[in-house]
Here is the input.
Amino acid sequence: MNLVSMKEILDDANRENYAVGGFNINNMEFLQGIIKAAEEVNSPLILQTSEGAIRYIGMDYVVGMVEAATKNTSIPIALHLDHGGSFEKTMECIRNGYSSVMIDGSKKPFAENMVLTQKVVEAAHSVGVSVEAELGKLGGSEDDITVDEREATFTDPEEAVEFVEKTGVDALAIAIGTAHGVYKGKPELDFDRLEEINNKIDIPIVLHGASGVPGEDVRKAVTMGINKVNVNTDFQQAFTAKVKELFAEKPDLYDPRKYCGPGREAIKERVKEKIDILGSKNKA
Ligand code: 13P
Here is the structure.
């Protein structure tokens, strides 16, 4: 496949203070909509699949589609495993041609997360594949959680220093108040913590759960050191809203091309809005 490593893409972003989208694909329309948008605005791109998306699409289809999509592209693209849950899953993706993997040991105790990440880094780096890891726990969208409980799950800046030094990981996902999926209230990001972490570590920092976070807050996080921003739900919502709108207008629709095509177009437009916020336009 015509892919580059995520490290190459993110090191440029880190040097020039912008962020690149880690955009999740769920099917062919997502893949095509996302790549078309990035090509139109000349942005680098990190295409990512969760383990669930790999199960849904099938590994051979993921790889086959990405191979077709990247054959004639002029922008740098990485194919990345999002939230890899085990050493074995990361190795399976690498064997199938992924140029980057995330190992998510964030729910394990600190030392165990570190050992697991070290093991993945050693194997991945030996074949030129980059690695993202996570420290701290995402969540925090629950209304009934106290501030102390919330902050206890956030990334500890001192731990981040030790983790990065000892694992040699290429990018670190941190917990500063975002959550995956749909927010119940307005997400409150801990920018002071982000600033402290960014002052202490040199590698690119990743923000997960960016869907539903106001554009100005994502922009602020990028100016303060975030170099990769993960988005999935926003694109799912854009696709589904379009399909619902079409069915409301024409309940007799039956040809999937007549609603999946416009859904793909809706994803493309939403991706371009995100790229504008991240500042990766014309950075390809
Ligand atoms: P959202 O679905 O909330 O955008 O989160 C995506 C993500 O962080 C994937 O790792």
